[in-house]
Amino acid sequence: MADYDAQPGRITPPEPELSHAQLEAHDDDLQAGLSGVATIVSGALGVDDLLGVVADFAAQAIPGADGAGVTVIDASTSARKPLAWAATAQFVREIDIVQYENLHEGPCVTCMETRRPAVSGSLGSDRRWPHFGGTVARMGVHSALSLPLLVDDDVIGAINSYAYARDAFGDHAVQLGSQFAGPAAVSVHNAKLLTDAQHRTEQLKRALDSRTVIDQAIGIVRSRSGCSAEEAFDRLTRMSQGDNVKLRVVAEQLVDEAVKRARARRQVQ
């Protein structure tokens, strides 16, 4: 039996016995999803696009799902605030907005707190999320399966599956979903690490580019006034503050002006 947090107080009907062909089909869907997330090249996709791809594979791998979503959180804080999420269908996106932005309660929030899958077969009567459950049930969605994404024992996000039918997710769905969630968590984590590294590299490059043009502007001011580097930098800073313009922009303008003057003198000669 799969290990998960079921809806308290709800007696669910026994799962129908699946035929050999159905089990094989579910296993094929799972393997396709696992192969898909394993071959994702993180550098080729941004985090948002990658989450969308993983959500598509999750909807395929988890039997009974009418839609799925994947969420990444800021693991550096205890608030578990979503940084990004993607959904396979509009109704899933609407549910996520209710869960993350409006009510701050729901199966995804709970599964990340408990670090265990959370299952509900009748959201409208699930006392764990009295506001969320009623809202989603009025949208015609009655079942939910949320799986935490764990990497090295750290929660980095969650996979959320939803179904219009009641009691859509039983032991079998939780088992397959959990098998999918492990590799999916690694792919999402690696993509986020790569994206963060690329952002830091871009920021460093911009900082170096800015430093270069500022140094050039300092040299121009010194050549014109005979002041020290510190005095030239102070002049640029005062110009930046007085014009309410970034220091880099002031430096670029000064360098461009000096280049134009030099070219004009060259043409006269």
Shape estimate: elongated
Tell me the fraction of residues in β-strands, as a range: 5-15%
- Structure class: alpha+beta
> Order of strands across the biggest sheet?
2-1-5-4-3
What share of the residues lie within helices?
Answer: 55-70%
**Could you list the spans in which at least 5 consecutive residues all have pLDDT below 50?**
none
Order of helices and strands: HHEEHHEHEEHHH
- Largest β-sheet summary: 5 strands, antiparallel
Under CATH, the homologous superfamily of the largest domain reads GAF domain
Please, what is the average pLDDT? 88
Please tally the β strands and state the result: 5
CA radius of gyration: 27 Å
Number of helices: 8
When the domains are counted, the total is: 2
